[in-house]
Amino acid sequence: IHLSQFGGGSVQAGGSLRLSCRASTFVYTRNCMAWFRQAPGKEREGVASVDGDARTRYADSVKGRFTVSLDNTNTLYLQMNSLKPEDTAMYYCAARNIRVCGTKMVGSDFAYWGQGTQVTVSS
To answer: What CA–CA distances, in Å, run from 62 to 57, 59, 80, 92, 116?
Structure first.
């Protein structure tokens, strides 16, 4: 699976951005998909995931502000609203080989990764 990311950029606090990630193969209902992020000097963290049954999971830090979705064009989205400076990071989409995401978003569980896109939120 090849993942190509689009979107990102710079925005002021309180603004919105949408990230997209197009998969090269059919992943809709077949693969767990997720978004991770990594800020400078910090560990990579799982942000949001969606499994083969369209069940979603979010990190506590983004609940109520971010929305993850996957459509039948095999495109994964991350709608980010009410952005905060602490959301500044490089964002990566990722795919597992199975449709189950599990209870935690662990990077080592994901075999395929996008190229990353920078999100910068200024105060």
So the answer is: 10, 6, 9, 15, 19
Q: How far is it, in rounded angstroms, from Cα 62 to Cα 7?
A: 18
Of the candidates 28, 71, 66, 29, the one whose C-alpha atom is nearest the C-alpha of residue 47 is 66
- Residue identified by tokens 């990579």 is 44
Per-residue pLDDT of the chain (123 residues; tens, 9 = 90+): 999 999 999 999 999 999 999 999 999 999 999 999 999 999 999 999 999 999 999 999 999 999 999 999 999 999 999 999 999 999 999 999 999 998 899 999 999 999 999 999 999
